[in-house]
């Protein structure tokens, strides 16, 4: 519901989708569908004796992807999800944020059960038992995976990281934790690190490797100046859903200490730092001072969509005259679906409930190949958090569509006191 009781602005009416019908199909596809396209990652150094692939898929126009790193024999591993395990594979499963949200709301067992089914399926694919998988989940796109390798003498370390910190970054020791076990099983922003080494690590060395990994991740966040999403002015130290998997080797040197004073600890810290910096640069555009932006298809698309969104917002901030201009610069799909008088009236009602704009800052951005009730295409949701004369905090969400002429235009505008 929009401020003042006005309905959210929308240029289309969603086709109702029931959880029962959607996820009956989903469960069938999960158990019976063939595996999607597979692409190799790497190659990784030979002495790691590991193969990495990403399996690409899609459900209802929303992507899902799995990073699977497999080993020819069981390895000793420490996972923040499973604890101490012997593994044949390590998995980082990614799904679109909208898919996680839908699963959490409508799927029996929520996102946790979805991950269980996905991991069971990946284990069958690898010809392994589920108990021999180390696992984590994320909403960061695996197209933005970062791989950093460091070597010295007999030691090799590889860090494979996915990272998102636009909406869930926090500062440990400052920010409040409000969820109880099982209440919040859908990843939001997440930094996941899979650490591989040829060294034969003791259990204590595995645990200390997680400490060094966490320190390097926090150093990357500090140097990138990533703020807490919850406490204004606070520096983030991580996100609320970070995961780490450390996988030891079977053939390398025996190691009982991986702290920062050791050579292998240095390699771990440098590899993780580099991977997290790259992953956050690709996913969110966070950059070290003076660094050149990463050039990815997603970031190029996002840059154009954000520019169109901000130009359109500047129009509606201008009142009635701006409303008229906003109508004519919006997507043709909007103008084909609704009478301009009705659309302008709803916009006027919503903005009157807000009053004048005081401040506005960009929050999260999401892309999608399809949305309910809309034809398949390229869509981008750009969210802002604003303060207005009559509302101290408002979430403004713009849905943009890449129209047939290649230009990004606004298709939907929503202002609400709570984030979707």
What does this structure look like?
The protein is α+β, with helices and mostly antiparallel strands. The chain folds into 2 domains: 34-294, L-amino peptidase D-ALA esterase/amidase; 298-416, Roll (Nuclear Transport Factor 2, Chain: A). It has helices spanning 19-32, 97-106, 110-126, 203-224, 263-284, 297-316, 320-329, 332-337, 340-354; strands at 38-41, 51-59, 62-79, 83-95, 133-138, 146-152, 155-163, 169-170, 191-197, 200-201, 238-239, 243-247, 254-255, 357-368, 379-388, 394-402, 408-416. The strands form 4 sheets. Strands 1, 2, 3, 4, 5, 6, 7, 9 and 12 form a 9-stranded mixed β-sheet that branches. Strand 2 and strand 3 form a beta hairpin. The model is unreliable at 1-34 (pLDDT under 50).
CATH topology of the largest domain, by name, is: L-amino peptidase D-ALA esterase/amidase
Oligomer: single chain
Number of domains: 2
Q: What distance separates the N and C termini?
A: 11 Å
Q: Which shape, going by the Cα principal axes? A: elongated
Query: Gyration radius, to the nearest Å?
Result: 23 Å
Order of helices and strands: HEEEEHHEEEEEEHEEEHHHHHEEEE
Helical percentage: 25-40%
Tell me what portion of residues adopts beta-strand conformation. 25-35%
Biggest sheet features: 9 strands, mixed
Mean pLDDT: 87
């Amino acid at each position: 519901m929009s401020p003042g009781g006005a309905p959210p602005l929308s240029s289309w009416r969603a086709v109702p989708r029931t959880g029962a019908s959607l996820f009956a199909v989903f469960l069938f596809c999960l158990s019976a569908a063939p595996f999607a396209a597979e692409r190799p990652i790497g190659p990784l150094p030979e002495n790691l004796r590991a193969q990495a692939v990403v399996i690409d898929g899609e459900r209802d126009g929303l992507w899902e992807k799995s990073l699977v790193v497999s080993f020819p024999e069981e390895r000793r591993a420490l996972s923040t999800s499973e604890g101490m395990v012997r593994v044949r594979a390590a998995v980082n499963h990614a799904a679109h944020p909208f898919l996680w949200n839908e699963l959490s709301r409508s799927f029996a067992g929520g996102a946790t059960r979805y991950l269980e089914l996905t991991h069971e399926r990946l284990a069958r694919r690898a010809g392994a038992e589920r108990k021999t998988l180390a696992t984590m989940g994320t909403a960061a796109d695996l197209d933005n995976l970062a791989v950093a390798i460091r070597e010295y003498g007999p030691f090799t370390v590889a860090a494979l990281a996915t990272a998102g910190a636009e909406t869930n970054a926090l500062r440990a020791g400052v920010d409040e934790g409000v969820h109880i076990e099982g209440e919040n099983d859908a990843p939001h922003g997440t930094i996941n690190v899979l650490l591989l080494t040829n060294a034969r690590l003791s259990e204590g060395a595995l645990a200390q490797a997680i400490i060094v990994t966490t320190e390097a991740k926090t150093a990357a966040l500090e140097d990138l100046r990533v703020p807490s999403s919850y406490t204004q002015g606070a520096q983030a130290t991580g996100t609320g859903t970070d995961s780490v998997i450390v996988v030891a080797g079977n053939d390398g040197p025996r190691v009982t200490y991986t702290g920062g004073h050791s050579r292998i600890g240095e390699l771990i810290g440098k590899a993780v730092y580099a991977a997290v910096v790259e992953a956050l640069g690709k996913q969110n555009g966070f950059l070290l001072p003076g660094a050149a932006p990463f050039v990815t298809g997603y970031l190029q698309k996002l840059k154009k969509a954000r520019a169109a969104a901000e130009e359109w917002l500047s129009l509606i901030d201008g009142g009635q005259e701006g409303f008229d201009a906003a109508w004519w610069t919006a997507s043709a799909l909007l103008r084909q679906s609704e009478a301009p008088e009705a659309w302008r009236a709803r916009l006027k009602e919503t903005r009157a409930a807000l009053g004048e704009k005081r401040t506005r800052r960009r929050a999260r951005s999401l892309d999608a190949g399809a949305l309910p009730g809309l034809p398949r295409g390229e869509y981008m949701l750009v969210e802002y958090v604003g303060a207005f004369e009559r509302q101290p905090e408002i979430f403004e969400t713009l849905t943009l569509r890449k129209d047939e002429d290649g230009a990004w235009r606004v298709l939907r505008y929503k202002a609400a006191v709570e984030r979707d």
